[in-house]
Amino acid sequence: MRGPVIVKRAFNEPLLLLAALGSILLATTTLVALTMYASSIADAGVRRTMEQASYRQTAATVGAQITAETFPRYDRAVRDELARAYAAVPAITTSFRSDSYVMPGQEGEQQPELLRFGSHDGLDRHAELISGTWPRAGGSTIEAAISLPASSATGFEVGREFVTKGRLDPRPVTVRIVGVFQLRDTSDERWAGEQLLSRGVERGDFTTYGPLMVARETFVARFATSVRTVWTAEPDLSALTPERLRPMADAVGQAGERLTAAGCVSCVVASRLPEVLTQLDTAALVARSTMLIPVLQLLLLAGYALMLTARLLADHRRMEVALLRSRGAGTIRLAALAGGEALLVALPCAVVAPFLGPPLLALVNQLPWLRASGVRLAPSADLGTFLVSFGVALASAVLLMLPALAGARRTYVEELSARGRGGVRGLIERAGADLGLLAVAALAIWQLRRYGAPVTATAAGGLGIDPLIISGPALALLAGGMLGLRLVPRVSRLAERLTSRRPALAPALGAWQVSRRPLRYGGPALLLTMAIAIGILSMTTAATWRASQLDQARHQAGADLRLSGPPDGPELGSLGRGTVFSALPGVTAASPAFRGQTEVSNEDTLLLGLDAAQLGELFQLRPDLSAQTVADMSRALVGRQAGKLDLPGQPRMLVVRVEADAEVPARLVLSDALGVWRDLPLGVLRKGENQLELDLRSPAGRSGKITYPLSLRGVVASSPAGLRLGGLSADGQDVAVPRPSGDVPGVIAFGPLKQLGPLPVVLTADLATALKMGAGKAGRISLAGRVLQVKVVGVVQSMPTAAAGQKAVLADWGTLQAHELAAAEQPRPATEWWLAADDTDPARAALRKSPGWDVTAVDQRELAAALRDDPLASGLQGALMLGFAAALGFATLGFLVNAAVAARERRAEFAVLRALGTSSRQVLGLLATEQAFVIGLSLAAGTGLAVAVGTLVVPHIVLTGQAAAVTPGVLLDIPWAATAAMLALMTGVLFAIVAGLARRLRRGHVVEER
């Protein structure tokens, strides 16, 4: 009997139950989708990070001293332990290096050249044969393969046979070269510790060639005489899940202790994987915790929307419940009726929501930043999603039945007497609970701002999600919205006084209606306020995140394109690199740069030298990081320059005549038209006149070209000896030499060096504080152990290319070189080249075609794309968009239901007004005035609340993909255009609902009049 009564009772209020059904379905579907999304994005982030991890990040090496007797036992122990640590057998390679052997024919020399033998598992997979075959085991003559660089250096070719002896092992070894090979990629990280293998020769106290690669069995049998062996494990981590990160990190980190315990006393394990996995686990935890912030906001909004609908349903059922109670229905029966009705609505939503979640995520997967990241979300309904769905649905059912039970104890007479009362202040406001909630929210936001993420240390010493911190933004939105309700009675009374003085009926009557029953309109106003605030906050967080990725890329790159590498090389020399780089397609400006660590007054500091004249086009400094503009810095950084003597034409040879007062090493300093300085050694000058011939083509390298004119900057002695420049000739043509400056002992220069004045510099704020110097101040500092007079022309909060918290100093390239010359120091090499380009793709393509240039490129656009496409960093954006759409859905649905119920309750009132001659337009104006009050107050309060919470919260939840603080700091970016469009759209939708209700009321009254 109870079942049919529940169904019949439910169909008596179809509008409210449909609203409850819509709210519960929207809540369960969105929360199930968010749960699926958070899990999928964490898995995708871990998988993508591991797929893109470098060899050095994932490989583990075990090194040990072995002999032919101990190797089998050590090999078995290492392989077993590595398989245990990775929970699967990784790809393991073993490499060997022998002791030194004497080059054939040099046995009797005191310092002979040396050979080494080696073996590497699977070398044929990473190298290709130039000639011959790979060595085989067996036989009295040892077969060996040699690398092409070593073959060129030693002259060993296929078929060469020789005998050698070890420096520690006197037994002769007969060797036959059977193959010459070349590594496919000598810059591969796996060869980082194998410089001899990649280069073929090492020069030091002894010159060593090799290694001559032999078969593994041959090496163990003949060369394993207490030599070093390295086992390298390369695991396949593409299927790694977030749950396995910490256990694997612990297992790999403890591998060394377990190997020692197993008897491998000399085994040393080295791996960056535990650090990488621990950092990735922290990043995944922070990503999941950050995604809980919109989830909690949505939960709060869904709960309030459902309670609003439940309150309306309970209001309509009060008289019915009172009658049932007067006829003997007890509390248990009334609770059963309310609970059955709630379950009738909630259970279908619990069943359907897990199947609606994947299609919803398919729409989220179309977002541009998710598509760009390569992440494809394809989750399916599983036990976890059903548990979430049923949990949310049951909680919704409880919320739906609570208001019905709250008034179940009133009698019919009590309901009649209380029916017409309308309070001005709600229970929560009277109790001051909104102020208490605001205090809790303030505490949570304070903790978020202090810790920088919703993750804190646990009592066990690990990391965990702090429920107070992640709930802070949601609590702040609720507290702010509830405080806004205090304005409803006051604003409505003010509106009533203003409209009562005007002759129009609709505004006056509408304002009077709101002021008479403020609590009836306060509920929808709070719902709208929270929904609007969540919507704007979601858009603000997404916009701020995107802007921050671009800021980080600009800061890390420093310029559109930054090239680093050795300042001098065989292919491109120091004076040939700039000509090639500045001529790359699309490059509009270029500057040589020195970028390196130094010590400034006992502070570890990044020293950056750039052409100050090019700063405006190159230097990517965010304007808020400095009180000075880049243009101001560009002008102020240029100090006095060193003099120079331009050499005519494009000379190939330079003859220098120098007189010295004593024997002293010296060097000649040149510069090209791009401002690159280079010193050429003159050797040890004899006392008296010296004539030296210098090749000016060699500093360009094999494929480089010099940008002319070349300029002579000076001649510098290693000690303060007397030097005089007797003459110069370039390609046989004498060069007129002006009278050099002699104000610095041991330096021949072409302008006064003691009058250079202080070096203009730009300091980071922390370095300026440490030096107790500010903008406009001058003083003496110690730079790389040398006391220098400087003038601070600018202070920046963070220097481009500097890491977070790294102190840095910026100086003009030419002015810095002049001060180095004045101190008789070597000129700073151009360790980097900074380039400006509207489109860097053509330049990058040209660089890829020339690997011999030995250049590492940092491309701002590629860096921004990599930061943007990191799933763990960008995962919050999809959650925000889901929350944004759901919030607007709750707002629209809640407003529609409340407006419809309010209009239906007042049909009799509208009928009286129509009978008194009120027109349809006036009825529409009356409804529009009432709802405009709710809409206008909600839009204004929601916008203000979003701005306030966004300012306090958003900069602290935008983190890097490694869950670290962002450098430079996050700037709040409120997309006002999109916000205005969203507010206009919502206003149009809500007023369309009001117009539709007015039209239905008019049609209903016409029928009644007939």
List keywords for this structure.
single chain, 1010 residues, alpha+beta, 9-stranded mixed beta sheet, 8-stranded mixed beta sheet, 32 helices, 32 strands, disordered C terminus
Would you kindly provide a written description of the structure presented here, covering whatever features stand out?
It is built from 32 helices and 32 strands. By secondary structure, it is α+β, with helices and mostly antiparallel strands. Helix 11 (about 275-325) runs parallel beside helix 14 (about 385-405) and helix 17 runs antiparallel to helix 18 (about 465-485). The longest helix has about 55 residues, at about 275-325. The model is unreliable at about 420-430 and about 1005-1010 (pLDDT under 50).
Q: What is the number of E strands?
A: 32
Strand percentage lies at 15-25%
> Helix/strand/pairing class, anyone?
alpha+beta
Q: Supply the number of helical segments.
A: 32
Globally, the shape reads flat
Largest sheet entry: 9 strands, mixed
Brief sketch in words of this structure:
This protein has 1010 residues and is of the alpha+beta class. Helices cover 51% and strands 20% of the residues.
